Amino acid sequence: MRRNLLLALACLLFFSGCEPSYFVDVRLESSHPWERASGRQFWYTLVHTGTSGLEMNNIPIGVHDIRLAVPRSRTVIFAAYPLGTGFPVGGGMTTGTSEGPILLTSLEGPLGNMLLQVAKQWPAVVSHIDFDRLSDAVRQADERMLCIDWNRVAASIVNGTLGESSIQSIETRTVELRDIPEGSWVSESPMIRSFTLYGKDTVTLDSLPPGMIRFVNLQGRMELRVLVPDDETEAPFWYIAPLDPLLAISDPAYHDLIRSADDFP
């Protein structure tokens, strides 16, 4: 009887050690710039590298902490996108366990986003990256962790040649905006300044990286999208889009959404 009990206990310990995943707590950075400006909280789409590819969870309005099952013995990458498509907060945990919650920040958002893009096709390669070391190297190249040649970094990861020389900052652009509707325009990235226009003023934005940069004018119920091409010979351009429905709906409708977050487990 005693022998059978010891055998059962040994089997339990063996299989427990072979569990493919364990739980970690993930916490989103305190608030998005548009949340602070509008007084409204957002929902987020959280993507991370799982045991069988990328996994996605929708985090309801007002929720900033979530517990997730993640793979053992590999690096796990996270990125959470406000309103599903916005400038992400990101982070990662290097192979092994981690003490305390994994904090996702806007500073590491672009890095997390790039690694998830690579993981779509090469998950095994990303699972062996030393995330903390890579993050430190990116920050040394650009303290905003924004103006990096991400294509070069991604290619080095896939080719197995990732090193200090793989991480290089890129030339930023200065963009002059004319004929923008007046008002206060709030950037979605804490690393890119917001601005206020009066009348027919012109605004100059310095040190912009390639890609789309968005601003909202809550009083005018408008979103400004500035597109900076990768090709330096191409001129940046901008256009006005409507606000996201969460920012455009009435206060009663918004509070109904807030109450629905109570159903989140």
Molecular structure report:
By secondary structure, the chain is of the alpha+beta class. Helices cover 27% and strands 31% of the residues. It has eight helices and 14 strands. The chain has helices at 2-17, 33-38, 109-119, 123-126, 131-141, 150-159, 245-248, 251-260, and strands spanning 21-28, 44-50, 53-59, 65-71, 76-82, 89-93, 102-104, 173-177, 183-187, 195-197, 203-208, 211-217, 222-228, 237-242. Strands 10-9-12-13-14 form a five-stranded antiparallel β-sheet. Strands 3-2-5-6 form a four-stranded antiparallel β-sheet, covered by helices on one side. It has a three-stranded mixed β-sheet with strand order 4-1-7, with no helix packed on it. A hairpin with a 6-residue loop joins β5 (76-82) and β6. The protein is flat, with a radius of gyration of 22 Å. Residues 1-17 have low confidence and may be disordered.
The low-confidence runs, each spanning 5 or more residues with pLDDT under 50, are 1-17
The number of strands is 14
Largest sheet entry:
5 strands, antiparallel
Rg, Å, rounded: 22 Å
Identify the strand order in the major beta sheet. 10-9-12-13-14
What is the approximate shape? Answer: flat
Q: So how many helices?
A: 8
| Helix/sheet category | alpha+beta
The percentage of residues in β strands lies in: 25-35%
- The helix/strand order is HEHEEEEEEHHHHEEEEEEEHH
The end-to-end distance, rounded to whole angstroms, is 42 Å
* Helix share bin: 25-40%
Averaged pLDDT, please? 89
